[in-house]
Q: What sequence folds into this?
């Protein structure tokens, strides 16, 4: 065995597929012959494709946009210190060529002849994010590429998902902080993929590479502005069905006498802004988010302060004129023109604009409001005007970390184009900027430090002034020499366009031109010595010099004027007359005759298609009035010479061209037959017809009369007066917080029970408890209420939940404003806390509105038997009075052992006891319990969030109702400890029941089926002594065991043989039985055949 070598089994070869075998053998596959290999897969693929197309389709809406719509709201959203204000300033500079130093409130600019936009910056407040998400048409989401995604970005995206998703563009900033180019590409790719995951695949992401003079590159801002101007804005459902107004100017028109008598009196306020969405109506109920509900006292329209340019009949210009580049930003102090109801105010400065420095100091001291010694003790030393105070808390940046994000390779480059209609490669811009020499960068820094830096000379000391004067004198030394050196440095760095276009062959010409240019720039002393230097020319250079003054030269941009032909003379003009379409051609090739023939052929084809007249009749009556020299006979001869195939070919081409134009442009309604039209096509036609009817109905009326019928439509600049506004809105006004006037429908002013479907957000780290206060943003309103959670059972019962499920939806019922169904909302537990965690607690949608509630919870009552009879018992300790017993008469009860019963009637004593019947006799030690459901009353708590009424430094610190846990934590109270509420492990005693013994007499009477059959045998256990066997006994016992084992094996083998023999016997008997049945069948056929013949 040791000599033999071990033989292992060989590995089986990998089986190759049929396609691989076919490729190896060299057999080609015809893809057209085997295009559809499986009909089921093809059907699934087709259905999936149709499902995707059907999901993209949306029901067409009636277009209610006016001819002059309101400016689109473009919001710039992002966490602090990401460059939002710089983006807005860059866009304003691109559109209007103006620099706006301070941006506060909305800024409206004219983009082109048909578009205006309102730029709005969102600060780092959750209230501001909610309001801007509701009114924005386009959102520019600014992201710091050097830091990554922050919590504010994802909070804003989730708010948009609930209130309606506007168009979103991503803007990456701070890319110049990352110095490594590979890391920049990797960061771009990671941020782009995560951005696509959160919004949708393919959303645009712009890259702003760097800052120069505190501005982004003009090319990048140009690309961003161009995409904003061509993007299509999708109207949202809520904003298209509700009117709203973004306030860009506010005025307090309250009587001064009322303010003198009472500083805290309610004010009368005028709000100005463009109307958006649906039409405003007089005396309409409106809501100002962060303030409250009001009713419009008066409303009218005034002239547009930022109108679109008028359409002139002159030649169309693609760009705007300088006078049409308008900007309107009253909160930022730009423009200086304010429109009112009956006047126009122009800010001219006047005598009050220039005040002495001393008066400014006095006014600032008076504004302090406390003694100077206390002010100096509390204040910090501040050297610069923009210095940061020590007491200010640093901003906590909330970075988002994704655990499922895969790191990409450094070598992968991902260059993203910014648009579909045009391509703007930001990477090429980066390369161009990085290609600048270090000298240019130094120049940029020098210009930045000398020209752009503003120095207030009045605040400088005398020593500083002397130093500055000395610096100016030194700067003027050798100014001529410095100018020459800087000029030659710039001239050497500039690329020669001629060399880039025509190549290096003209190097000789460039050298001579450069030398001549340089010599002309030198002083007059050098000009006298120009004729002393001569260079001998070779034959090649002579040939080049001769070649460059010929028409056939490769580069003819320097062609001399002497060799040009003067085509103003008739003799020279005749030489090239036949080279153009109007020249002298053959009779058949003449342009005028060909055009005339084509026109006649088209007329003939139209006549044949319409069957209006016969060809012969048309040819006989045809008479060319424009060209009397042409005759119909010549036309007939030309037509007759053409073949019928060519005529048919031209006719088909014309038909095909007409069909393609109609189908591609959808200009004709007969593109699809009636049987091929879908539901979407019919709905689109209905919406289009309704849009035309709406526009034609009030088209002939003047605007003053039209407003009385249909209200103040979108696009008008409105002046709304509201009475009864709290004084805090005016006193604590901050332009960085937008003021929105949202209109309500007739049914949305009431308050009732709202039933909604809610789900806890997966990123919120706390679980929501029942009855805890929630701040809900729904519709235009932000309010605080108490939500009661429930879930619907299979029998339709709404069972109350203590907490929200982990990954499931549940129902929430709360007391709040009546809102239409399918309206989304966002819930927060607090909007004032500063935390690094996610702040959105839950999202949901409104299901239905009801005046009543149907939430129930479990109620388990326990009682003990007082007296026990056969099947009746008196139960006590379950109720406290007879009145409670009567409420539960007929209710089902049960014992712990499982015996069911029913409540009958109360008894006199003790109080609350009752009589009950059971299925069987219960034990006196048993426990009786009652399972029931009781209604849960919903508290009617509703409080509007009034964040706009708070002071400027506390607008983000609104506090409403606190939870019980917060109150205990603030007061140092412990949670109440009820021992009965603790969960305890139930310990039951083990009961040893006696065996059931049936008497013998009863056993005799029982039927056989019920008689006990397997009774345990009674035997007395006798303690025996262990027996020790000797050797003879052991041998005999082993022999008996072997014999038994052999006998057992023999019987098993005999049984197998017998089974095999029986199986063979069954087979033989089955064959015999088959033969016998076949013989019987044949005999029956023979007999029946004989009987049939005899009957005939």
A:
């Amino acid at each position: 065995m040791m000599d033999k070598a071990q033989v292992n089994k060989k590995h089986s070869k990998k089986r190759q597929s049929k396609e691989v075998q076919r490729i190896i053998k060299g057999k080609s596959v015809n893809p057209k012959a085997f295009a559809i290999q499986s009909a089921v897969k093809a059907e699934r693929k087709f259905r999936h494709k149709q499902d995707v197309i059907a999901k993209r389709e949306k029901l067409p809406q009636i277009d209610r946009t006016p001819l002059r719509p309101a400016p689109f709201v473009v919001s710039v959203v992002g966490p602090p210190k990401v460059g939002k204000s710089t983006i807005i300033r860059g866009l304003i500079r691109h559109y209007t060529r103006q620099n706006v130093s301070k941006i506060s409130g909305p800024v409206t600019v004219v983009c082109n002849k048909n578009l205006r936009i309102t730029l709005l910056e969102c600060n780092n407040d959750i209230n501001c994010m909610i309001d801007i998400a509701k009114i924005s048409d386009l959102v520019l989401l600014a992201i710091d590429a050097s830091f990554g995604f922050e919590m504010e970005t994802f909070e804003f995206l989730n708010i948009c998902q609930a209130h309606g998703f506007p168009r979103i563009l991503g803007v990456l900033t701070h890319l110049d902080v990352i110095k490594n180019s590979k890391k920049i590409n990797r960061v771009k790719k990671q941020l782009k993929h995560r951005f696509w995951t959160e919004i949708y695949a393919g959303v645009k992401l712009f890259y702003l590479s760097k800052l120069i003079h505190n501005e982004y590159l003009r090319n990048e801002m140009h690309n961003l502005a161009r995409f904003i101007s061509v993007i299509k804005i999708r109207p949202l459902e809520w904003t298209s069905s509700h009117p709203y107004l973004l306030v860009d100017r506010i005025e307090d028109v309250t009587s001064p006498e009322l303010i003198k008598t009472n500083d805290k009196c309610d004010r009368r306020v005028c709000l100005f802004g463009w109307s958006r969405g649906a039409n405003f109506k007089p005396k309409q109920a409106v809501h100002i988010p962060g303030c409250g509900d009001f009713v419009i006292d008066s409303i009218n329209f005034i002239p547009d302060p930022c109108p679109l340019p008028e359409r002139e009949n002159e030649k169309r210009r693609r760009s705007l004129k300088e006078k049409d580049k308008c900007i309107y930003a009253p909160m930022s102090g730009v423009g200086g023109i304010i429109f009112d109801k009956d006047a126009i105010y122009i800010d001219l400065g006047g005598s009050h604009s220039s005040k002495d420095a001393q008066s400014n100091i006095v006014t600032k001291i008076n504004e302090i409001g406390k003694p100077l010694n206390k002010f100096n003790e509390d204040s910090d030393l501040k050297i610069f005007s923009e210095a940061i105070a020590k007491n200010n808390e640093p901003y906590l940046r909330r970075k988002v970390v994704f655990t499922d994000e895969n790191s990409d390779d450094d070598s992968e480059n991902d260059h993203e184009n910014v648009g579909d209609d045009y391509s703007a490669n930001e990477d090429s811009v980066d390369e161009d900027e990085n290609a600048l020499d270090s000298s240019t960068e130094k120049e940029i820094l020098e210009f930045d430090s000398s020209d752009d830096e503003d120095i207030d000379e009045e605040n400088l000391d005398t020593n500083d002034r002397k130093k500055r004067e000395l610096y100016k004198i030194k700067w003027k030394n050798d100014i001529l020499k410095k100018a020459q050196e800087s000029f030659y440095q710039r001239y050497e760095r500039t690329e020669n366009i001629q060399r880039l276009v025509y190549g290096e062959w003209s190097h000789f010409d460039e050298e001579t031109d450069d030398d001549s240019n340089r010599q002309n720039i030198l002083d007059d002393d050098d000009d006298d010595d120009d004729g002393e230097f001569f260079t001998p020319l070779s034959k090649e250079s002579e040939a080049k010099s001769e070649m460059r003054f010929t028409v056939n030269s490769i580069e003819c941009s320097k062609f001399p004027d002497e060799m040009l032909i003067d085509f103003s003379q008739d003799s020279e003009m005749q030489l090239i007359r036949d080279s153009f379409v109007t020249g002298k051609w053959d009779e058949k090739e003449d342009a005028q005759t060909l055009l005339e023939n084509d026109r006649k052929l088209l007329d003939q084809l139209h006549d044949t298609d319409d069957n209006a007249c016969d060809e012969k009749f048309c040819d006989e009556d045809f008479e060319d009035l424009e060209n009397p020299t042409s005759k119909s006979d010549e036309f007939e001869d030309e037509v007759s010479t053409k073949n019928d195939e060519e005529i048919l070919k031209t006719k088909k081409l014309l038909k095909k061209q007409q069909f393609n134009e109609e189908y591609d442009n959808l200009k004709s309604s007969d593109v699809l037959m009636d049987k091929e039209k879908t539901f979407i096509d019919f709905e689109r036609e209905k919406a289009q017809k309704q849009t035309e009817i709406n526009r034609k109905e009030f088209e002939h009326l003047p605007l003053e009369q039209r407003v009385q019928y249909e209200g103040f439509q979108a696009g008008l600049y409105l002046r709304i007066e509201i009475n009864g506004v709290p004084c805090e809105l005016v006193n604590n006004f901050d332009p960085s917080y937008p003021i929105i006037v949202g209109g309500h429908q007739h049914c949305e002013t009431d308050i009732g029970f709202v039933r909604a479907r809610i789900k806890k957000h997966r990123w919120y780290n706390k679980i929501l408890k029942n009855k805890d206060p929630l701040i809900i943003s729904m519709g235009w309103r932000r309010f605080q209420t108490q939500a009661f959670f429930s879930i619907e059972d299979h029998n339709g019962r709404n069972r109350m939940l203590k907490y929200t499920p982990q990954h499931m939806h549940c129902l929430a019922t709360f007391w709040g404003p009546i809102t239409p169904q399918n309206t989304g909302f966002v819930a927060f537990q607090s909007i004032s806390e500063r935390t690094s965690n996610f702040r959105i607690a839950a999202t949901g949608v409104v299901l239905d509105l009801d005046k009543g509630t149907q939430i129930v919870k479990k109620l388990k009552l326990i009682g003990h038997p007082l007296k026990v009879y056969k099947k009746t018992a008196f139960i006590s300790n379950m109720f406290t009075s007879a009145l409670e017993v009567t409420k539960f008469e007929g209710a089902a009860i049960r014992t712990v052992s499982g015996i069911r019963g029913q409540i009958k009637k109360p008894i006199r004593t003790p109080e609350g006891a009752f009589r009950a019947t059971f299925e069987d006799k219960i034990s006196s030690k048993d426990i009786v319990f009652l399972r029931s459901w009781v209604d849960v009353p919903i508290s009617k708590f509703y409080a509007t969030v009034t964040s706009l009424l708070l002071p400027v430094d506390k607008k983000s610190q609104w506090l409403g109702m606190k939870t019980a846990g917060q109150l205990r934590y603030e007061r140092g109270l412990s949670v109440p400890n009820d021992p009965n509420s603790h969960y305890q492990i139930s310990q039951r005693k083990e009961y040893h029941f006696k065996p059931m013994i049936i008497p013998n007499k009863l056993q005799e009477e029982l039927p056989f089926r019920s008689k006990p059959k397997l009774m345990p045998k009674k035997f007395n256990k006798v303690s025996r002594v262990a027996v020790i066997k000797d050797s003879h006994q052991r041998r005999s016992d082993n022999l008996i065991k072997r014999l038994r084992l052999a006998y057992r094996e023999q019987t098993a083998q005999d049984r197998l043989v017998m089974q095999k023999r029986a199986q063979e016997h069954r087979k033989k008997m089955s064959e015999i039985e088959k033969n016998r049945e076949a013989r019987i069948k044949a005999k029956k056929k023979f007999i029946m055949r004989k009987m049939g013949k005899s009957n005939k």
